[in-house]
Design goal:
Layout (H helix, E strand, L loop, with lengths): L3 H6 L3 E14 L3 E8 L3 E7 L18 E7 L5 E10 L2 H4 L2 H17 L7 H15 L6 H12 L21 E4 L4 E3 L11 E3 L1 H12 L2 H4 L6 H19 L5 H8 L7 H14 L6
Parallel strand pairs: 3-5
Antiparallel strand pairs: 1-2, 1-4, 2-3, 4-5, 6-7, 6-8
The protein binds zinc ion.
The site of zinc ion has 8 residues, from loops.
Length: 282
């Protein structure tokens, strides 16, 4: 989709930073890239010859990398002329647990956004999340990312009022209705709709994640069962918004600490994940 913004404001040749969401081999030696940029949102561009061993673009356009690009606008597709990796997030690539979270995050951003719709908060959220993962990110990073991404795309769940009757929620047992975008009080039981149980602890955590900045989230320590419940609710909400399952979630669940059966399985899992991401890590 071409927007007024892109027609009037972007010169023929422009420089931008971008996070590489995915790349896809096309032609003899090219890559078709899906990028997320600070000022133009998601865009696709071709990197000609990038798969050749001697290409100057090679090694600067791998998925998850933050990179500085010089791009020429094309009628249908832009072309990357120069690329210089700014942050490669090596520690994320070398740790299956971190890698699976990063792949899930980039897939979420890719599927929830439209091309050429600038959304700087999403760019910032993804970059900050990758940086956090490269460090010592707490388990609450993932639900923080899920919730904030929903918020930045206009789907922030309602956590203070019942989405059915509008009453202010009082402490107690509630449920969560992804299809209506939020919480139900304990008096409302709409028929024939999918609802999930929502404990008071999880509701408090969701409100905390909604309200606080990442610096506070870093100090948040969650009970494992609360973390599972919060992630399940947010995943259900994301599935509803996207109208499909996020494929990288399966990989994420397989490689989580305490959820994998043995070292050999990692080999299969990462190959499977790579295949299912259309060559994401090739
Ligand atoms: Zn109600």
């Amino acid at each position: 989709m071409t927007t007024l913004y892109s027609m009037t404001s972007t010169p023929k040749i422009y420089k931008t930073e971008a996070i590489v969401l995915r790349h896809f081999a096309i032609g003899e030696a090219d890559y078709l890239l899906t990028l997320y940029t600070p000022n133009r949102g998601k865009l696709r561009a071709v990197a000609k010859g990038a798969r050749r061993v001697k290409s100057k673009l090679g090694g600067h356009l791998e998925p998850l990398m933050s990179t500085s690009l010089l791009i020429t606008r094309g009628q249908n597709l832009d072309t990357v002329n120069q690329a210089e990796a700014l942050e490669v997030f090596r520690s994320v690539r070398e740790d299956l647990n971190k890698l699976s979270q990063a792949l899930y995050m980039v897939e979420l951003v890719d599927t929830i956004t439209l091309e050429e719709q600038p959304n700087y908060p999403i760019y910032r959220l993804l970059l900050d999340a990758l940086r956090a993962l490269a460090g010592d990110a707490p388990p609450s990073l993932l639900p923080f990312f899920q919730l904030r991404l929903l918020g930045h795309t206009g789907f922030m769940p309602e956590l203070y009022q019942c989405v059915e009757c509008g009453s202010t929620l009082v402490p107690g047992l509630h449920s969560f209705m992804p299809g209506r975008g939020g919480t139900l009080c304990n008096s409302c039981h709409p028929p024939k709709v999918s609802v999930l149980p929502l404990s008071l602890n999880s509701l408090k955590v969701l409100r905390f994640l909604q309200r606080e900045e990442y610096i506070s989230i870093e100090r948040l320590r969650l009970e494992p069962e609360t973390l599972v419940e919060v992630e399940r609710l947010l995943e259900a909400m994301l599935q509803y918004v996207l109208d499909r399952e996020v494929r990288a979630m399966r990989f994420l669940n397989q490689v989580r600490p305490g959820q994998n059966a043995g070292g050999n399985r990692h080999v299969y899992d990462i190959q499977h994940a790579v295949q299912s991401q259309d060559g994401l890590l090739r």
